[in-house]
């Protein structure tokens, strides 16, 4: 199971393809107070996407964030997290920190 977090901070468990597409569309209204959307797997691994193109991958319980900039396949990555295919996400070329 996974949870998606909207740009407003609201959360729900709709991880259908349409819901994830809509989540990314919300980034158009992101601001300094609410800068990202995310998908969090039940294992606490979270993929956060920012309007400027930064993507952060971290375990919210353990820390040690990693990031990438200019990711072209954000929607695919969100789907992988939602389906629990975490090893495919972990295997990418992440850089240490939040990249901010």
Short description, anyone?
With 100 residues, the protein is of the alpha+beta class.
What's the layout of helices and strands?
Blueprint: E1 2-5, E2 11-12, H1 17-25, E3 36-41, E4 45-50, E5 54-59, E6 63-69, H2 74-82, H3 86-90, E7 95-96
Antiparallel strand pairs: 1-2, 1-3, 3-4, 4-5, 5-6, 6-7
Mean pLDDT: 95
Q: How many strand units? A: 7
**What's the shape?**
globular
Major sheet: order of its strands?
2-1-3-4-5-6-7
End-to-end Cα distance? 29 Å
| Number of helical regions | 3
Q: Largest sheet, if any?
A: 7 strands, antiparallel
What is the share of helical residues?
10-25%
What sequence of helices (H) and strands (E) makes up the elements? Answer: EEHEEEEHHE
What's the alpha carbon Rg, rounded to whole Å?
A: 12 Å
Structure class:
alpha+beta
| Strand content range | 25-35%
Indicate the low-confidence ranges by residue numbers: none
Tally the structural domains: 1
Task: Explain the overall architecture.
It is a single chain. The protein is 23% helix and 33% strand. It has 3 helices and 7 strands. Strands 2-1-3-4-5-6-7 form a 7-stranded antiparallel β-sheet. Strand 3 and strand 4 form a beta hairpin. The model has no long low-confidence stretch (mean pLDDT 95).
Features of the shown structure:
globular, single chain, 100 residues, seven-stranded antiparallel sheet, alpha+beta
